[in-house]
Amino acid sequence: MLDIKMAKHARSSAVSLPLDQLDLALVAQLQQAGRTPLTELAARLGVSHGTVRNRLERLLSARVLRVVATVDPAKVGFPAQVLIGIHGDLHRMAAIEKQLAEFEEVTFVSTLTGRLDFVIGAVFVSDAALRDFLVNKLSTVKGIRGTETFHVLNLGKRLWQWEIPVQSHHPARELRRGRRSHRRRSPP
């Protein structure tokens, strides 16, 4: 499957990469079947194999996307999935975030505005393992003032299923049309 990754956070040095219709169509094709051969993608998109390869390399190197295998934690022995809301001391936010990210049970760490300062996702082999995490690990993080744990009953939608909206235009035609219109603007 394809995992679309945008800039990690504001302090990262990543800059936004402008995506044209061909890039968007390529991403959409990969989201449907991430193992599709480049030659097949090229045929579907109406461009050359080299164009697809270059576009994909550019998207990968700019970290716009990653081609990854995704795992359902429940199907590999981690049925207890939780979200944990955390209240933290403002002067310890960076240290709290760093320590939360180091826990192997934690699948993501989000810093927030609003009533909560963080939300983390975590997976466990059992409710006993969750309790052990709360009592023996999370409680040791300096600066955490309080937590609220939400047991995930069903994951109806997963982030990696999100798709970039793509207009219904054929990407190769749009690309060629853009080149032609650019040439027409040249002085006589």
Walk me through the topology:
Blueprint: E1 2-4, H1 21-32, H2 38-45, H3 49-61, E2 65-67, E3 80-88, H4 93-102, E4 106-111, E5 118-124, H5 127-136, E6 144-151, H6 171-184
Antiparallel strand pairs: 1-2, 3-5, 3-6, 4-5
Total strands: 6
Count of helical segments?
Answer: 6
Residue-averaged pLDDT: 82
Cα radius of gyration in angstroms: 22 Å
The backbone outline, from C-alpha atoms, is elongated
Share of β-strand residues: 15-25%
> CATH superfamily of the largest domain, please?
Lrp/AsnC effector binding domain/regulation of amino acid metabolism (RAM) domain
State the helicity in percent bands. Answer: 25-40%
Count of discrete structural domains: 2
Are there runs of 5+ residues with pLDDT below 50, and where? 1-13, 168-174, 179-188
If classified by CATH, what would the architecture of the largest domain be? 2-Layer Sandwich
The structure class reads alpha+beta
CATH fold field value of the largest domain: Alpha-Beta Plaits
The ordered H/E elements are EHHHEEHEEHEH
Give a brief description.
The chain has 188 residues and is of the alpha+beta class.
